[in-house]
Structure formats: structure tokens, C-alpha cells
Design goal:
- By secondary structure, the protein is mainly alpha-helical.
- Helices cover 75% and strands 0% of the residues.
- It is built from four helices and no strands.
- It has helices at 7-25, 30-68, 78-99, 106-123.
- Helix 1 packs antiparallel against helix 2, helix 2 (30-68) packs across helix 3 (78-99) and helix 2 packs antiparallel against helix 4 (106-123).
- The longest helix has 39 residues, at 30-68.
- The chain is elongated.
Length: 130
């Protein structure tokens, strides 16, 4: 493991190279331009996931655990956290179906909206959410 630059800085440097140097060089090829832009976007997602993902995942787990009245406790590894988030989201979805919860339930609507906003913060922070 390196001290500097960290993984996120390396990804940002590669993304910068793709956008500023490679993309202008392949403008004549629609296919290569498209692939360069997709690669640039994917690097941004991975970089944001490294920087912000675990904090957002912890917040999601806390919200879901509180709402579903599950015992507190967040797993140690990111993989375990993602797995637990999937389980808790499935339980939330089942509760929504079972109780026929609609958008008039502001608590559930807020819970879902916050989760979606955080996912967009990683996947596409430029997406308009207002």
C-alpha cells in the first residue's frame, strides 16, 4: 500500500488524462470517444465510492436499522455492510408492500428519498434532484 498518492488520487489522475488528453486525440472516432467518456465516468464513480461510499453506507444502515427497529451494529467490512444494506432494503420493500405504504407516509418517503439522493451522490452528482 502506498502512502501517496492514494487510490482515489490515482483514479482522479487517470480520469483527468482521459478527459483532457485522450478524448481530444480520439474525437474523430465516435466509438473511441464514447468509450473514453464512459471510462472517465466510471473512474469518477469509483473515486467517489472510495471517498464517500462507506460514510454514506453507514448512514443508510443507521437509518434503515432505526426505522425497521433492528438492533444497532454495523458490520466491520464494506462487503458485509453492503450485504446488510441489501437485506434491510429488502425488508423495507416487503414492509411497504405488506402494509401498502404509499407516498403519503412522509417518514417512509423521506427514508427512501435520502437513500436515493446518496446513491446519486456517488453515481451521478450532477443529476438534478431538486
Amino acid at each position: 500500500m502506498q502512502d501517496r498518492p492514494d487510490a482515489s488520487a490515482l483514479l482522479d489522475a487517470i480520469a483527468d488524462f482521459l478527459l483532457k488528453e485522450l478524448l481530444p486525440a480520439v474525437r474523430q472516432s465516435d466509438t473511441l470517444s464514447y468509450k473514453a467518456l464512459v471510462s472517465w465516468n466510471m473512474l469518477g464513480v469509483v473515486s467517489r465510492e472510495i471517498k464517500e461510499g462507506e460514510g454514506l453506507l453507514n448512514a443508510e444502515l443507521k437509518r434503515l436499522s432505526d426505522f425497521l427497529k433492528k438492533p444497532p451494529g454495523i458490520p466491520a467490512t464494506a462487503r458485509e455492510k453492503m450485504s446488510l444494506a441489501g437485506v434491510l432494503n429488502a425488508e423495507l420493500a416487503e414492509q411497504i408492500r405488506r402494509e401498502r405504504i404509499g407516498p403519503e407516509n412522509k417518514v417512509v418517503l423521506s427514508l427512501i428519498k435520502q437513500g436515493l439522493l446518496e446513491k446519486l451522490q456517488i453515481a451521478n452528482p450532477r443529476f438534478g434532484t431538486d
